[in-house]
Design a protein that fits this description.
By secondary structure, the chain is of the alpha/beta class. The protein has helices at residues 4-16, 33-43, 72-81, 135-147, 169-178, 187-196, 220-248; strands at residues 26-30, 55-58, 63-67, 89-98, 108-117, 152-160, 182-184, 201-209. It is globular, with a radius of gyration of 17 Å. It starts with a helix and ends in a 9-residue tail after the last helix.
């Protein structure tokens, strides 16, 4: 195997346990196995990848969901391996920390861009290249959020490959200076590697904590509460948006400069 495509065609099924021909044209990616299980239960379809690095499932409409794990390197891995499936669109369903007073737990964020503090994306583009979504994909997601009588905020996400930084006052000060609306570990990577691979991509983030204050840092108890209250809607919006895109037949064009 001496080409990227040959490697990806071998590794995508190896990582997920799902045959290559089962991947759909539109794909949801997430950090959470329970999203995949909820998806499979809803559509009565199989979950592949038990005991493997990633889990995946595809419904009868040809929509696929993948749990790729956590962190920037894993986000880059799945966005690289998806070249084997040649998806027409990929939507990341993730959680983030809210950095604004207006960013309350349970809010949705449609990022207009992401700050590349992840490090991983530097292997794909020079630092001055912005990490951006495919805006047409975000328009479909926006329409579904409104249709569901919900609301969302837009802004820039700061992506970092650090974990357990909530105690670090210097890092928190840096976050405030960026004026980012939220912080996560994957969005900039998904946008950058999607751009690199000519994959239309977007992100719908659920604010799961407000880490600028000690009492706002995520705990196991608070995360369970977020899951119970908002995860079903988060997943539903992603499913509906990507299904509608597929049924509309509209192409989400990607321009490479």
């Amino acid at each position: 195997m001496d080409t990227k495509l040959e490697i990806a065609k071998n590794w995508l099924p190896r990582y997920t346990g799902m045959p290559l021909e089962m991947f759909g044209d539109y794909i949801l990616i997430t950090n959470f196995k329970d999203y995949v299980i909820k998806f499979a239960d809803r559509f009565n379809c199989d979950v592949y990848g038990e005991g493997r690095a990633m889990q995946a499932s595809t419904n009868s409409d040809g929509l696929t969901i993948i749990n790729y794990g956590i962190g920037s390197p894993n986000a880059a891995t799945i966005m690289d391996l998806l070249v084997a499936a040649k998806p027409k669109g990929v939507l990341f369903l993730g959680k983030c920390g809210g950095l604004k007073n207006s960013s309350e737990i349970g809010n949705f964020i449609l990022p207009i861009g992401a700050i590349r503090g992840d490090g991983t994306s530097n292997d794909y583009f020079p630092p001055e290249v912005p990490a951006l979504p495919s805006f047409k994909l975000h328009k479909f997601v926006s329409d579904i959020i409104i249709e569901k009588e919900s609301d969302y905020r837009t802004g820039v996400i700061f992506t970092t490959n650090r974990r357990v930084w909530e105690h670090d006052k210097r890092f928190l000060k840096r976050l405030k200076k960026t004026t980012a609306i939220g912080v996560d570990m994957e969005t900039a990577t998904v946008f950058s590697v999607g751009h690199f691979n000519d994959i239309a991509r977007g992100a719908l983030l659920l604010v799961s904590d407000v880490p600028l204050t000690p009492e706002g840092v995520k705990t196991e108890t608070s995360d369970k509460e977020v899951t119970q209250k908002w995860v079903d809607l988060h997943l539903e919006i992603g499913i509906k948006a990507m299904t509608d895109i597929g049924k509309s037949g509209e192409e989400i064009k990607h321009f490479k400069y």
